[in-house]
Amino acid sequence: MEHSGTLESLAQELRVFRPLPQLVIEANVNPQELESFRRQAANDPQGYWEEAADELDWYKKWDQVLDESNAPFYRWFPGARCNIVYNALDRHIETANKNKLALIWEGEPGDSRKYTYYELYREVNRFANALRTLGVGKGDRVIIYMPPLPEAVIAMLATAKIGAIHSLVFAGFSAKALRGRIRDVKAKLVITADGFYRNGQIIRLKQTVDEALVGACADCVDSMVVVHRAKVDTDMLDGRDFWYDDLVRRERPESPTEVMDANDTLFLLHTSGTTGAPKIVSHCHGGYMVGVHRTLNHVFDIKPTDIFWCTADLGWVTGHSAVLYGPLLAGTTTLLYEGHPNYPQADRMWHIVSKYGVTIFYTAPTLIRMLMRFGPQYPRQHDLSTLRLLGSVGEPIGPETWLWFYRHIGRGECPLLDTWWQTETGMFMISPLPISLLKPGSVTKPLPGVEVDIVDREGNSVPPGVGGLLVITKPWPAMMTGYFNDTGGDKGDETSGDKSGEKGVEGERFREAFSRFPGKYLAGDVAKRDEDGYLWIQGRADDVLNIAGHRLGTAEMENAFRSHPAVAEAAIIGVPDKIKGEAAKAFIILIQDAQPSDDLILDLKHHMRKELGPVAVIKSIEFRTTLPRTRSGKILRRVLKAEELGEAPGDLSMLDDTE
Ligand code: WT7
Questions:
Q1: Atom 24, ligand 1: which residue's CA is nearest?
Q2: How far, in Å, from the CA of 209 to the mean position of ligand 1?
Q3: 118 C-alpha vs ligand 1 centroid, how far in Å?
Q4: From the CA of 429, how far away is ligand 1's center (Å)?
Q5: Which of 232, 484, 546, 547 could serve as 280's disulfide partner, Cβ 3.0–4.6 Å?
Q6: Reduced to 3 states, what is the DSSP secondary structure of residue 614?
């Protein structure tokens, strides 16, 4: 790739990087085809997505491509019958993919396991049978609280295969957060591991689940499956807890795939919103697989020989769409790594790239920023010549990190594809293709079939160069089908500590996402467009933080603080962090009897870890006696933030979207 314009140019908009000619020749989608896809999708979006759906296998095709009669509750492919696992796994057994690697796994200590499509298929069948034996069936919820292990992949696929619904909880969440999530979805089964390796240590996991399974939530959970990974002493409760190996050993490697309605739920994922209780996003089999399949193929230009490595944890949507379902739908090889990126030293990622010949490396800016610190000598020690595409996701990457990644990892030759999307969108929405002209820090343009706009508070499109709210103006197939148990208001679960528990209208929270500007989905991000129509994401517009690419609600963290006996009131703001992008700063009002001290600060940080888990990083704590509030009593976080950053509060008016 070469750049037109000078590298030293200060105006980032001036730097444009072009793909190497050879790459354009070899791309699955060339510039003319991309243009024609865009034209087709603009003129006939349903026809465009119907063609995308025709690339997959269905037990029965749809009566209609899109049912808009109950908007914003759009239904894609109503009447169709399918199962995503048939497309991700079963159908590959009939083709040359049968003996191709589906999954490469590397453990932190350096152990490794590989599964061909056929081997993975048989493992999934065994575990699917085991799940049925345990009494799990269509529509039941299964919580998967696991480190990145092959069994986590197998568990997700087996659950979906039998028509049950998986709901992953990132292993960085605490017992208390896990308990809330188990209860929210009324899980029948929890799948976990005895422990796993992280940064040279063994993290015990099963005991966290035991801790979570006390009280009310023990009622819904019938059984627990435990994968023997860390080989640590583990208490097993007779009749409730089962070793994974004992279960699958007894089962046959064939198992029928459940025929699902296209709009039946595939998975649930908790995500942070602006109110106290996390939202539980629901995705279905049909539209989700169509959207993920088409966009992953377009953006990552999948070739038969690719080794695809997305570094996300399976517990986030990126893990669902870009580690598991997307790559397997495409019939490519996906890579999963158990451990810490710096273990035993700062070249582990590059060691893995060269060891397995990774061709596509998709990661988050926070990881690149962390590795940048150690200098380019670490990647230089390894042969990274197999890489042909790089990807970024989760937060704005910024030109500096973009250029480092591009030069030191991508040799200045691999297109860097910055993909914008969300848990709610399910699939990539705004992203370049390998053939696109790139500007460092821009997510470029919406993919074909995706229509977005940037609007002001009244919903009017803003001109180029002006920041505004990002909205999606047309339905897309992988859009969430709703929020689970969406009765509006806050449900007042234990993770949030919010006890308001108001009952509202069915589907109210979902409707909210489309209600501010009727018919348009409000993404919650601030963005601007430049003169070329390129999009630049500037960050969240609401009270949601993005810490190391993980989404956390300020309300969730404030509630966690409020449950500490010394805390009377808490307000959280995001502050810039060199590595994590953003970190949380807490403003705390203590109860009358409590005194500020360093010990108390430590204790408060520890409390947060216990309440929400290590994902909720608190950078600093400041004690106050009052907090700025609106007349109705709402804390004005934007005033705190402006103070902290030394900005005029007015500058941030666009950011404050909650009043
Ligand atoms: C939020 C969604 C699905 C990706 C993992 C995060 C931010 C995501 C980008 C990007 C700038 C990005 C947005 C978005 N975000 N991708 N390429 N550039 N910001 O999924 O947890 O649902 O968070 O992540 O703020 O709204 P998520």
A1: 394
A2: 29
A3: 34
A4: 11
A5: 484
A6: coil
Q: Ligand 1, residues 421, 479, 526: which to mutate, most atoms within 8 A of Cβ?
A: 421
- The two tokens of residue 599 are 């010990």
Per residue in 309-336, pLDDT (tens digit) is: 999 999 999 999 999 999 999 999 999 9
How many domains would you assign to the chain?
2
pTM of the complete model: 0.92
Amino acid found at 210: D
For the segment 371-379, the average pLDDT, to the nearest whole number, is 95
CB 321 less than 6 A from any atom of ligand 1: no
Q: Is 524 in the pocket of ligand 1 (CB under 6 A)?
A: yes
Residue 80, token pair as written in the block? 């169709």
d(CA 483, CA 500): 19
Residue range 245-283, pLDDT digits in tens? 999 999 999 999 999 999 999 999 999 877 667 899 999
Which amino acid, one-letter code, is at 256? P
Cα separations in angstroms, 376 against 237, 406, 498: 50, 12, 47
Is any atom of ligand 1 closer than 6 Å to the C-beta of 393? yes
- Which candidate, 518, 614, 634, 566, places its Cα nearest to that of 276? 634
C-alpha of residue 422 to centroid of ligand 1, in Å: 5
Q: How far does the centroid of ligand 1 lie from the alpha carbon of residue 420, in Å?
A: 6
CA distances from 445 to 374, 420, 437, 439, 629 (A): 33, 10, 10, 11, 39
Range of the domain at 300: 59-340+474-513
Say whether both 548 and 509 belong to one domain. Answer: no
